[in-house]
Amino acid sequence: MAFSMHSHSGQFCPGHAQDDLEPIIQTAISRGMISFALTEHMPLESDADQYPDEGSAYQSVSILRPRHEAFIVEAVRMRQKYLSQIQILIGFEGEWIRPSYASLISELAASEHVDYFIGSLHHVHEIPIDYDAAFYSKAKATSGSEEKLYEDYFDSQYEMLKALRPKVVGHFDLIRLLSEQPGRDLREWKGVWQRVVRNLQEIVQQGGLMEINSSALRKGLAEPYPARPVCEEYLKLGGKLTLSDDSHGIAQVATNFGRAVDYLESLGVEELWLLEGKNSGAKALGLRSVSLESVKTSLA
Protein backbone atom coordinates (compact mmCIF):
# COMPACT_ATOMS: atom_id res chain seq x y z
CA MET A 1 0.00 0.00 0.00
CA ALA A 2 2.62 2.51 -1.07
CA PHE A 3 1.67 6.13 -1.72
CA SER A 4 3.21 9.54 -2.24
CA MET A 5 1.97 12.90 -1.00
CA HIS A 6 4.29 15.09 -3.10
CA SER A 7 5.07 15.11 -6.84
CA HIS A 8 5.78 17.33 -9.84
CA SER A 9 5.57 17.00 -13.62
CA GLY A 10 7.36 18.56 -16.56
CA GLN A 11 3.97 19.38 -18.05
CA PHE A 12 3.28 22.00 -15.40
CA CYS A 13 6.78 22.61 -13.99
CA PRO A 14 8.76 22.81 -17.26
CA GLY A 15 12.49 23.13 -16.83
CA HIS A 16 12.19 21.97 -13.24
CA ALA A 17 10.70 18.51 -13.83
CA GLN A 18 10.14 15.97 -16.62
CA ASP A 19 7.25 14.13 -18.30
CA ASP A 20 3.51 14.73 -18.58
CA LEU A 21 1.06 14.16 -15.77
CA GLU A 22 -0.75 11.13 -17.20
CA PRO A 23 2.26 8.84 -17.74
CA ILE A 24 3.48 9.77 -14.27
CA ILE A 25 0.14 8.64 -12.83
CA GLN A 26 0.27 5.48 -14.93
CA THR A 27 3.72 4.79 -13.50
CA ALA A 28 2.44 5.20 -9.95
CA ILE A 29 -0.34 2.70 -10.72
CA SER A 30 2.13 0.24 -12.26
CA ARG A 31 4.23 0.43 -9.09
CA GLY A 32 1.30 -0.54 -6.91
CA MET A 33 0.53 2.80 -5.32
CA ILE A 34 -2.89 3.22 -3.73
CA SER A 35 -2.70 7.02 -3.68
CA PHE A 36 -0.67 9.64 -5.52
CA ALA A 37 -0.78 13.37 -4.91
CA LEU A 38 -0.34 15.94 -7.67
CA THR A 39 1.34 18.95 -6.08
CA GLU A 40 2.85 21.22 -8.71
CA HIS A 41 4.70 24.35 -7.63
CA MET A 42 2.39 27.27 -7.05
CA PRO A 43 2.44 30.47 -9.16
CA LEU A 44 4.96 33.05 -8.00
CA GLU A 45 4.57 36.76 -7.31
CA SER A 46 7.69 38.03 -9.02
CA ASP A 47 10.06 37.09 -11.83
CA ALA A 48 12.89 37.43 -9.30
CA ASP A 49 11.41 34.57 -7.26
CA GLN A 50 12.01 31.99 -9.99
CA TYR A 51 14.85 29.49 -9.91
CA PRO A 52 17.21 29.89 -12.88
CA ASP A 53 15.90 26.70 -14.52
CA GLU A 54 12.35 27.93 -14.10
CA GLY A 55 13.03 31.35 -15.58
CA SER A 56 14.23 29.88 -18.87
CA ALA A 57 11.03 27.87 -19.16
CA TYR A 58 8.55 30.43 -17.86
CA GLN A 59 10.04 33.72 -19.09
CA SER A 60 7.56 35.69 -16.98
CA VAL A 61 5.49 34.81 -13.93
CA SER A 62 2.49 36.26 -15.75
CA ILE A 63 1.91 32.86 -17.38
CA LEU A 64 2.09 30.92 -14.11
CA ARG A 65 -1.45 31.55 -12.86
CA PRO A 66 -3.06 30.38 -16.14
CA ARG A 67 -0.71 27.36 -16.06
CA HIS A 68 -1.80 26.57 -12.51
CA GLU A 69 -5.46 26.77 -13.54
CA ALA A 70 -4.76 24.45 -16.47
CA PHE A 71 -3.06 22.05 -14.06
CA ILE A 72 -6.14 21.95 -11.83
CA VAL A 73 -8.37 21.19 -14.84
CA GLU A 74 -6.10 18.37 -15.99
CA ALA A 75 -5.72 17.00 -12.47
CA VAL A 76 -9.49 16.80 -12.07
CA ARG A 77 -9.70 14.97 -15.39
CA MET A 78 -7.02 12.52 -14.28
CA ARG A 79 -8.73 11.98 -10.94
CA GLN A 80 -11.93 10.95 -12.69
CA LYS A 81 -10.23 8.89 -15.40
CA TYR A 82 -8.27 6.77 -12.93
CA LEU A 83 -10.81 6.75 -10.13
CA SER A 84 -11.10 2.95 -10.09
CA GLN A 85 -7.33 2.40 -10.06
CA ILE A 86 -5.83 4.92 -7.68
CA GLN A 87 -6.76 7.76 -5.37
CA ILE A 88 -5.48 11.01 -6.82
CA LEU A 89 -5.11 13.94 -4.47
CA ILE A 90 -4.98 17.41 -5.96
CA GLY A 91 -2.87 20.07 -4.34
CA PHE A 92 0.14 22.27 -4.83
CA GLU A 93 3.43 23.01 -3.13
CA GLY A 94 3.26 26.30 -1.33
CA GLU A 95 6.13 28.76 -1.28
CA TRP A 96 6.95 30.97 1.68
CA ILE A 97 9.41 33.34 0.06
CA ARG A 98 8.03 36.28 2.03
CA PRO A 99 4.97 36.77 4.27
CA SER A 100 2.97 38.29 1.42
CA TYR A 101 2.70 34.79 -0.03
CA ALA A 102 0.22 33.87 2.70
CA SER A 103 -2.73 35.49 0.94
CA LEU A 104 -1.91 33.92 -2.43
CA ILE A 105 -1.50 30.44 -0.92
CA SER A 106 -4.77 30.81 0.96
CA GLU A 107 -6.54 31.92 -2.20
CA LEU A 108 -5.24 28.96 -4.21
CA ALA A 109 -6.08 26.53 -1.41
CA ALA A 110 -9.70 27.74 -1.36
CA SER A 111 -10.41 26.12 -4.74
CA GLU A 112 -13.16 23.51 -4.55
CA HIS A 113 -10.90 21.06 -6.38
CA VAL A 114 -7.84 21.41 -4.13
CA ASP A 115 -7.51 18.88 -1.35
CA TYR A 116 -4.51 20.42 0.42
CA PHE A 117 -1.19 22.19 -0.08
CA ILE A 118 2.30 21.37 1.10
CA GLY A 119 3.84 23.96 3.38
CA SER A 120 7.40 24.34 2.09
CA LEU A 121 10.39 26.62 2.29
CA HIS A 122 13.00 26.83 -0.46
CA HIS A 123 14.26 30.35 0.28
CA VAL A 124 15.84 32.29 3.13
CA HIS A 125 16.11 36.07 2.74
CA GLU A 126 14.32 35.45 -0.60
CA ILE A 127 17.39 33.49 -1.79
CA PRO A 128 17.09 29.82 -2.87
CA ILE A 129 18.87 27.53 -0.41
CA ASP A 130 18.54 24.24 -2.33
CA TYR A 131 19.45 25.22 -5.91
CA ASP A 132 23.25 25.34 -5.92
CA ALA A 133 26.25 26.17 -3.77
CA ALA A 134 26.49 29.75 -5.01
CA PHE A 135 22.94 30.64 -3.94
CA TYR A 136 23.40 28.83 -0.65
CA SER A 137 26.60 30.78 0.05
CA LYS A 138 24.80 34.03 -0.73
CA ALA A 139 22.05 33.18 1.75
CA LYS A 140 24.63 32.22 4.36
CA ALA A 141 26.52 35.48 3.85
CA THR A 142 23.27 37.40 4.29
CA SER A 143 22.66 35.66 7.62
CA GLY A 144 26.27 36.09 8.71
CA SER A 145 27.04 32.44 9.49
CA GLU A 146 25.71 28.99 8.72
CA GLU A 147 24.35 28.56 12.23
CA LYS A 148 22.43 31.83 11.90
CA LEU A 149 21.20 30.78 8.45
CA TYR A 150 19.68 27.66 10.01
CA GLU A 151 18.05 29.80 12.69
CA ASP A 152 16.64 32.13 10.04
CA TYR A 153 15.34 29.16 8.04
CA PHE A 154 13.45 27.69 10.98
CA ASP A 155 12.15 31.12 12.03
CA SER A 156 10.75 31.63 8.55
CA GLN A 157 9.27 28.14 8.63
CA TYR A 158 7.59 28.96 11.94
CA GLU A 159 6.03 32.08 10.40
CA MET A 160 4.68 29.89 7.60
CA LEU A 161 3.28 27.30 10.02
CA LYS A 162 1.54 29.93 12.14
CA ALA A 163 0.08 31.77 9.14
CA LEU A 164 -1.04 28.82 7.01
CA ARG A 165 -1.43 25.69 9.19
CA PRO A 166 -0.56 23.32 6.30
CA LYS A 167 -1.93 19.78 6.35
CA VAL A 168 1.46 18.50 5.14
CA VAL A 169 4.85 20.02 5.91
CA GLY A 170 7.38 19.50 3.14
CA HIS A 171 11.05 18.49 3.56
CA PHE A 172 11.23 19.95 7.07
CA ASP A 173 15.04 20.30 7.15
CA LEU A 174 15.75 21.05 3.48
CA ILE A 175 18.28 23.61 4.72
CA ARG A 176 20.83 20.83 5.26
CA LEU A 177 20.99 19.78 1.58
CA LEU A 178 23.83 22.10 0.54
CA SER A 179 25.24 22.81 3.97
CA GLU A 180 28.85 22.30 5.01
CA GLN A 181 27.84 19.23 7.07
CA PRO A 182 24.51 17.82 5.81
CA GLY A 183 24.66 15.10 8.47
CA ARG A 184 25.17 17.51 11.36
CA ASP A 185 23.18 16.72 14.49
CA LEU A 186 21.22 19.94 14.96
CA ARG A 187 21.23 19.45 18.71
CA GLU A 188 24.83 20.74 18.56
CA TRP A 189 23.45 24.22 17.88
CA LYS A 190 21.31 25.22 20.86
CA GLY A 191 19.46 28.08 19.16
CA VAL A 192 18.77 26.02 16.06
CA TRP A 193 17.53 23.03 18.04
CA GLN A 194 15.22 25.19 20.15
CA ARG A 195 13.64 26.42 16.93
CA VAL A 196 13.36 22.90 15.53
CA VAL A 197 11.52 21.69 18.64
CA ARG A 198 9.25 24.76 18.64
CA ASN A 199 8.30 24.11 15.01
CA LEU A 200 7.68 20.42 15.61
CA GLN A 201 5.45 21.26 18.55
CA GLU A 202 3.50 23.63 16.32
CA ILE A 203 2.96 20.96 13.66
CA VAL A 204 1.72 18.50 16.27
CA GLN A 205 -0.55 21.10 17.89
CA GLN A 206 -2.07 21.89 14.48
CA GLY A 207 -2.63 18.23 13.67
CA GLY A 208 -0.43 18.41 10.57
CA LEU A 209 1.56 15.65 8.91
CA MET A 210 5.31 15.78 8.35
CA GLU A 211 6.56 13.99 5.27
CA ILE A 212 9.37 11.50 5.13
CA ASN A 213 10.73 12.73 1.82
CA SER A 214 12.91 10.24 -0.04
CA SER A 215 14.25 12.82 -2.51
CA ALA A 216 17.09 13.57 -0.08
CA LEU A 217 18.46 10.10 -0.78
CA ARG A 218 18.61 10.56 -4.56
CA LYS A 219 20.32 13.90 -3.95
CA GLY A 220 23.13 12.17 -2.07
CA LEU A 221 22.16 12.60 1.57
CA ALA A 222 22.48 9.66 3.93
CA GLU A 223 18.95 10.02 5.32
CA PRO A 224 15.61 11.23 3.98
CA TYR A 225 14.19 14.54 5.15
CA PRO A 226 13.94 14.99 8.11
CA ALA A 227 17.12 13.68 9.74
CA ARG A 228 17.01 11.16 12.58
CA PRO A 229 17.19 13.52 15.59
CA VAL A 230 14.32 15.57 14.15
CA CYS A 231 12.19 12.49 13.52
CA GLU A 232 12.91 11.11 16.98
CA GLU A 233 11.84 14.36 18.62
CA TYR A 234 8.73 14.62 16.45
CA LEU A 235 7.66 11.06 17.26
CA LYS A 236 8.28 11.69 20.95
CA LEU A 237 5.88 14.63 20.70
CA GLY A 238 3.22 12.40 19.16
CA GLY A 239 3.65 13.62 15.59
CA LYS A 240 2.24 11.81 12.56
CA LEU A 241 4.38 11.00 9.52
CA THR A 242 3.44 10.62 5.87
CA LEU A 243 5.49 9.49 2.86
CA SER A 244 6.61 11.34 -0.28
CA ASP A 245 8.91 10.67 -3.21
CA ASP A 246 8.90 14.36 -4.27
CA SER A 247 9.24 12.96 -7.77
CA HIS A 248 10.01 15.26 -10.67
CA GLY A 249 9.13 12.80 -13.42
CA ILE A 250 8.58 9.12 -14.19
CA ALA A 251 12.12 8.07 -13.27
CA GLN A 252 11.69 9.27 -9.70
CA VAL A 253 8.29 7.77 -8.83
CA ALA A 254 8.79 5.73 -5.62
CA THR A 255 12.56 6.17 -5.92
CA ASN A 256 14.36 5.00 -2.76
CA PHE A 257 11.12 4.03 -1.01
CA GLY A 258 12.82 0.80 0.10
CA ARG A 259 15.54 2.78 1.86
CA ALA A 260 12.93 5.14 3.30
CA VAL A 261 11.03 2.18 4.75
CA ASP A 262 14.26 0.83 6.28
CA TYR A 263 14.84 4.25 7.83
CA LEU A 264 11.32 4.33 9.27
CA GLU A 265 11.72 0.83 10.69
CA SER A 266 14.95 1.90 12.38
CA LEU A 267 12.98 4.71 14.04
CA GLY A 268 10.42 2.22 15.36
CA VAL A 269 7.64 3.57 13.11
CA GLU A 270 4.82 1.11 12.48
CA GLU A 271 2.24 3.30 10.77
CA LEU A 272 2.09 6.20 8.36
CA TRP A 273 -0.77 8.58 7.66
CA LEU A 274 -2.48 9.29 4.38
CA LEU A 275 -4.91 12.06 3.47
CA GLU A 276 -8.06 10.95 1.71
CA GLY A 277 -9.30 13.43 -0.86
CA LYS A 278 -12.48 14.34 -2.67
CA ASN A 279 -12.57 11.17 -4.77
CA SER A 280 -12.85 9.04 -1.63
CA GLY A 281 -16.59 9.64 -1.27
CA ALA A 282 -16.21 11.83 1.82
CA LYS A 283 -17.41 15.42 1.89
CA ALA A 284 -14.32 16.60 3.75
CA LEU A 285 -10.63 15.76 3.64
CA GLY A 286 -10.03 12.58 5.59
CA LEU A 287 -7.10 10.89 7.30
CA ARG A 288 -6.31 7.20 7.42
CA SER A 289 -3.61 5.03 8.90
CA VAL A 290 -1.48 2.81 6.66
CA SER A 291 0.76 0.19 8.21
CA LEU A 292 4.43 0.47 7.35
CA GLU A 293 4.44 -3.28 6.82
CA SER A 294 1.84 -2.97 4.05
CA VAL A 295 3.95 -0.29 2.35
CA LYS A 296 7.00 -2.55 2.59
CA THR A 297 5.12 -5.53 1.19
CA SER A 298 3.85 -3.56 -1.81
CA LEU A 299 7.42 -2.62 -2.71
CA ALA A 300 8.68 -6.19 -2.71
TrEMBL record:
EC identifiers of the protein: 3.1.3.15
Catalytic activity: L-histidinol phosphate + H2O = L-histidinol + phosphate
GO cellular component: cytoplasm
Pfam families per UniProt: PHP (PF02811)
Ranges of residues in domain PHP: 5-215
A GO BP annotation: L-histidine biosynthetic process
EC category: hydrolase
Similarity comment text for this entry: Belongs to the PHP hydrolase family. HisK subfamily.
Protein known as: Histidinol-phosphatase
